[in-house]
Amino acid sequence: MRLAGKVVTRLAALLLAAAGWSGAALAANSSQTPWGPDYFPNVPLVTQDGKSVRFFDDLIKGKVVAINFVFTSCSASCPMETARLRQVQQLLGDRMGKDVFFYSISIDPENDTPAVLKQYAARFDLGPGWTFLTGRRQDIDLLRQRLGLYMPALPARTAGTNDHDLSLVVGNQGTGRWMKASPFENPEVLATQLGSWLHNWKVASVRADPSYAEAPVRLPQQSRGEELFRTRCASCHTVGAPANSLAALRAIGPDLAGVTRSRDRLWLLRWLREPDVMLAEKDPIATALYQKYNKVTMPNLRLGVGDIAALVTFLEEQDPAVARK
Ligand code: HEC
């Protein structure tokens, strides 16, 4: 618990710094939390199903929540973020929508209509308890400010870039505990925080003693390729996961075992560099994969030549290990 406690303290400090909140009462009791209806605007929003809701009354009041800001035309970071949160959702299982709620709010409300959001959620096959929302731009900007996730637009903004803070705020409105977390955080740690740390006043912990030490990440002697794979690819891909295993069923993209043999080397190198361009050019393999994988596109991760080489080496190294099993 000590390690997890430290992490929580660090995140809380980050959150307070980012949002400019006073640190006086992070854990207030439910009746006097400073972050009540006076702090959080009760702005109207619309869900992906076209239902009108109010931010404070309907979405966060008395609930444990995770909130982030997305836009569906964002091709690189948002799908990664969504994929990672999807893992957290799966770890939380049937507590989603009962004890814990996720909200992804569009920062591109002009384009992200409820229908567009609904299609996006369906592509990722997101389960209950995760709502996508849109609304009026000024209301959404206000929410971003109050949640400490507002990045003012850069003056010389290139068309099409919608810079936004890739963080997520998790909180328990009832107890007034709020913190900022990265969606790239280890999903187990996030799930544990949401499921028990924020929540322990209501439900017994899922795990007795959650900590980074227990999380299934091998820290020592990680190669560059392995590190890249874990941080950039593993939220969507497995390597050599048994066909019907939970991991394989949960994955968003194909299992990558043997991919260095099954695909032409130049195809693979180019795919890792610019999958978006290959899809746009209607490369036949890319198009077939895209159809097969629910029309979720593999994001262009802006990998450098060295990163790509390290990843291919990592994938090759996995191959004999898989074959031996
Ligand atoms: C947001 C999810 C996501 C992330 C992150 C992601 N991919 Fe993919 N990947 C996909 C999807 C989905 C496909 C199937 C093609 C498509 O729909 O674009 C795919 C296809 C592939 C393929 C082709 C597989 C085949 O059978 O030929 C390779 C190789 C691949 N990804 C490698 C990677 C690597 C390496 C990374 C990390 C650097 C990565 N991907 C990150 C979703 C993702």
UniProtKB/TrEMBL annotation:
Q: Which GO terms describe its molecular function?
A: electron transfer activity; heme binding; metal ion binding
Which organism's genome codes for this protein? Ramlibacter pinisoli
- Domain (Thioredoxin) spans 34-199
Task: Indicate whether Metal-binding appears among the record's keywords.
Answer: yes
Q: Which PANTHER family does this UniProt record tie to the protein?
A: AT19154P, ELECTRON TRANSPORT PROTIN SCO1/SENC FAMILY MEMBER
InterPro entries attached to this UniProt entry: Cyt_c-like_dom, Cyt_c-like_dom_sf, SCO1/SenC, Thioredoxin-like_sf, Thioredoxin_domain
This chain belongs to which protein, by name?
C-type cytochrome
Locate the residues binding Cu cation.
Answer: C74, C78
Keyword terms: Copper, Disulfide bond, Heme, Iron, Metal-binding, Signal
Domain Cytochrome c, residue spans: 220-319
Q: Does the keyword Transmembrane helix apply?
A: no
Any S-S bridges, and between which cysteines?
C74-C78
UniProt family annotation: Belongs to the SCO1/2 family.
- What SUPFAM superfamilies does the record point to? Cytochrome c, Thioredoxin-like
